[in-house]
Amino acid sequence: MATAAASRRLPASERLRRSLGNGRISAILILLPPALILFTLFVILPLGESGYYSFFNWNGYGAPSDFVGLENYQRIAGHSVFHKAVGNTVKIVAISLLIQMPLALLLALMIFRKTPTNAVFRLIFFLPYILAEVAAGLIWSFVFDGNYGVTATIAQSMGVDSFFILADRDWAFVAVMTVIVWKYFGFHMMIYIAALQSVPEDLIEAGRIEGAKRLQIVRYVQIPHIKPAIIVSAFFAIIGALQVFDVIIPLTNGGPSNQTHTIVTYLYTFGLTRLNIGFGSAVGVILFVAAITVAVFYQRFFMKGDKA
Amino acid sequence: MRHTVAMTALLAGLASAGAAMAQTEINVLRVTVNDEQEAYYEQIAEAFEAEHEGVNVTFEYIANEAYKSKLPTLLQSDARPDIFYSWGGQTLVEQAEAGFLQPIDSMLSESFIETIPEAGLTAYSVDGTLYGLPLYATEVIFWTNKALTDQAGIDLDGIKSWEDFLGAVQTLKDAGITPIVVGGQDKWPVHFYWSYLALREGGKDIISQAMSGEDGGFENEAFVAAGEDFQELVALEPFQPGYMGTTYETASGMFADGAGAFHLMGDWDYLPMRERSSSGEGLPDDQLAIVNFPAISDPVAEGGEAATLGGINGWAVSNSAAPEAVEFLAYMLSAENQREGARQQLFIPIVKGTGDALENPFYAQVSKDIEDSSYHQIFLDQFLGASVGATVNDISADLAQGAITPEEAAAQVQEAWSFR
Question: Among A33, A216, B77, B414, which residue carries the largest CB count within 10 Å?
Answer without folding.
Answer: B414
